[in-house]
Amino acid sequence: MQTKRMTFPGRFLPYALLAPQVIVTLIFFIWPAGQALYQSLLREDAFGLRTTFVGLENFSRLFRDGNYLNSLSVTAIFAIGTTLLSMAAALLLACTVNRMIRSRSTYTTLLVWPYAIAPAIAGVLWWFIFNPSIGIVPYMLDMVGYQWNHRTSGADAMLLVIFAAAWKQISYNFLFFLAGLQSIPQSLIEAAAIDGASPMKRFWTIVFPLLSPTTFFLMVVNVVYAMFDTFGIIHATTQGGPAQATNTLVYKVYADGFVGLNLGSSAAQSVILMVIVVALTVVQFRFIERRVNY
Questions:
Q1: pLDDT at 98
Q2: Which pTM value belongs to this model?
Q3: Which residues form the ABC transmembrane type-1 domain (predicted)?
Q4: CATH code given to domain 57-293
């Protein structure tokens, strides 16, 4: 069997085509990461007038800091809750829309709109919805005897930021799940139906296993989203409170660096956050991908 090989007319053409992406990566990813790693080894005053090399002292202090260890557990709960809720809701919506024929495109367009909203705007919307004074949800919960107040209750605050972050990500997950459902051969589902399999049986034995590549991809993307891209939502809703109940790692980097002006500790936290996300991604590809059926 003869294979075709692409050849370029010039020796430098492939490098010229790669150059824009390489330059963007170096300027906006590699260079900031290197600066954060270097700054994490320093101690600076609030005005940047004096710098002292302290080595790994910033990292050792973090792991002795109870507030930072609390942020680790808060981030884990927030990331797991956001990922599970957003993916489950998106899969349910995708299965519902996939069964429609005439109005499928209309519902798809309507469900995609929330993804275009900025994270801070999404946070403000959900802050109004769950506001203890004027929000509709606290009013309805009060009718059944539950006093909602995310300003004083850490559990309520965590639920609020999880709802807001998951709602923002549902549209993205929905598009991929819908594309995955439409790529499944209908003949397999029809054959299972002829054999007497119930709708739930057909979903768990045929549809969901065939969606495993899409599910795995979205799980990786959603974990990264929850760890990095939810700063605007938390800042607009709870600002890490109450009592640091929603103070995730990415928000603590901002609070310590830009509010507390502890630049060395903030840089060390950003390095640790980057390592955690890379490690989680490696673990997902190393162990969870084995269960994916391509």
A1: 85
A2: 0.87
A3: 72-284
A4: 1.10.3720.10
